[in-house]
Amino acid sequence: MAVPITPISVGDVVRLKKAHPCGANEWEVTKLGMDIGLACHGCGRKVRLERYEFDRRFRGWIVRVSEAEAEERVAEKPDGQPDAAEKDAGTDGR
Ligand SMILES: [Zn+2]
Questions:
Q1: Residue-wise pLDDT tens for the chain (94 aa)?
Q2: Domain-by-domain residue ranges, the chain?
Q3: How far is the CA of 93 from the centre of ligand 1 (A)?
Q4: From ligand 1's centre to the CA of 23, what distance in Å?
Q5: Hey, is 67 helix, strand or coil?
Q6: How many angstroms separate the alpha carbon of residue 80 from the centre of ligand 1?
Q7: Residue 86 Cα to ligand 1 middle (Å)
Q8: CB environment 34-62: b (16+ within 10 A), e (fewer)
Q9: pTM, whole model, 2 decimals?
């Protein structure tokens, strides 16, 4: 009740109170629900915050999908970038 619910949507990029240890403080919203799924823009790490925690830590938008769509389409990366380089058939033999 003390903390207002932040009207975010999937694809929004937000700033939180605390930066990630990797140094970035940009989080892309990947999932909504009881938990908010966030992906770090610095290192690609995915975390989940309880809705309540998210609202407490939320500081502001960097990209807001709903507004961006109204003004102009900012199609940067619709999907998360692959974080772990998956080696395919590089080092196989031995
Ligand atoms: Zn990070």
A1: 567 888 899 999 999 998 999 999 999 999 999 999 999 999 999 999 999 999 999 999 999 987 655 555 444 555 555 555 555 655 566 6
A2: 13-71
A3: 34
A4: 6
A5: helix
A6: 13
A7: 19
A8: eebbbbbbeeeeeeebeeeebbebbeebe
A9: 0.67
